[in-house]
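Action item from last week, closing it out:
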Amino acid sequence: MRKLKKVLIIRLSSIGDIILTTPLIRVLNKKYPDCKIDFVIKHQFRDLIAAHPAVSRLYVYKKNDERYSLKKIRKLIREERYDIIIDIHKNFRSVYLRTCANAGKVVQFKKYAFKRWLLIKFKLNMYDHIVPVYQRYIDSLKDFDIEYDHKGVDLYIPEHYLNSIDHKWRSIIESIEGPIIGIAPGASYLTKRWMPNGFQNVARRLLQQHGDASIIFFGNTDDRRITDSILAGLHDYSDRIFNMAGELSLMESAALLNYCSYVITNDTGLMHMATGLKKKVVAIFGSTTRELGFFPCSNDAAIVQNVYLRCRPCSHVGRHECPEKHFKCMKDITPDHVIEAFELLR
């Protein structure tokens, strides 16, 4: 088996998918500590990998910007003559980048697309065993004697984000005596969002039952409407609640998330960020299931889901509406279910 000297990983997006590459980076670096590991990523996600100690170079793609064009990146890749290019995105952009790249070998990961289609379309479960996505990434290098080390995913936050949040929040954090609970009630797709009133009830009960606890709500600008509606019913606890949805950048959210002891979240990028920061995570899943490979890889994660619905999964990424019109995958999940999962992690 030849020794690897230069490896390129292509994963352009999105938050969770990129974080799920970190076990591959870690075990590759451990097996070949002198190997140069480079990474291709979209501009808006670059900070997820920028501080990774094992990544030597980032090729940053930015749409409609000649300085970060695919054409320019492809030329630079060709000049490097990588031993292996690992395409774990598998779309037309990644194919363009790896074609005629002068690489010794190009490998891809298994998406199990046909099994996935049978499960989603006809509810025929042909998965004899479940292989999480991060394991599929690692399996793409099985010919190079690389194995998963069962250490989960990683998230390295650039120092200036840590310093910025520490400067703004240190006095507040030092005044909090009990645990800080992060709650992320948003998601890109409706079928991945648990009910806002559910989050509201859970927040109220946690604040009642744990008198020294505080809660920070996380999310992007689109999620602000959701968090505002949740907080509208929690006026009695306003001194112990912080609504940061839409107020922070991606990595500022990560830096603030780092102060939390627990995180209650839908199936989102924030869930994977919290897992990468080794937080105790309660993850609520609606339209997607474990077979699709995106459940958090952590022993400190509790999954809340409606396992009795035959219509799950209805999508591998989520939908903007329930195709069955009843949305039982989320509506049948009660605050009791989430509180029970939370208490199991304590």
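Closing note: The CA atoms of residues 25 and 144 lie 14 Å apart.
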